[in-house]
Amino acid sequence: MYHGAQVDWGDTGKELGRKSKLVRILFFIGNGFDLNIGLKTGYKHFYGDFVRSHPDNIIAKEIKDKPEDWADLELALGKYTKEFTLENYMELINADEELELALSKYLADQEQSIDIKAGLSKEVADRFQKAVTGFYSDLPLQHRESIKTRIGNTREPIYYSFVSFN
Fold this sequence. Notes:
The chain is elongated and about 70 Å long. 52% of the residues lie in helices and 15% in strands. A three-stranded mixed β-sheet has the order 1-2-3, with no helix packed on it. It has two domains: 3-36 and 135-164, no CATH class; 43-112. The model has no long low-confidence stretch (mean pLDDT 81). By secondary structure, it is of the alpha+beta class. It has helices spanning 13-16, 33-36, 43-53, 58-65, 73-80, 89-112, 119-133, 141-153; strands at residues 3-11, 21-29, 158-164.
């Protein structure tokens, strides 16, 4: 699952001077959400582009030779740093800076691929709306029905909040 949610039915009688229930829904959006809505933001997507466009980069060469070792970029970089000494660490620093710039540009390009006027953005918006409005669909039936009933029966506004870990 690429998102989580917390639902709170707080008594707002004190704040509003009447008995009513305030519905607050908090979403936690984390790793995988962007992939689930169709963006090619995984390292495996980036690596092909990086290796092709930076053939002389020592990190790109490592990725090309052992792509399975680079599924987790941060972990792989940590392991790779052990191969360097004080005499040649600048080569790693320069390669890492090139990698970071390339990754930043790649992700910016992915973000730009969501054109508000294009069909892709409608698809992304539809997937996001479905995830938000049907966040409880993977819960056990008892919890799912409870949430559907409470959301469907409220006359008060529903307050949505989002926390992103991306």
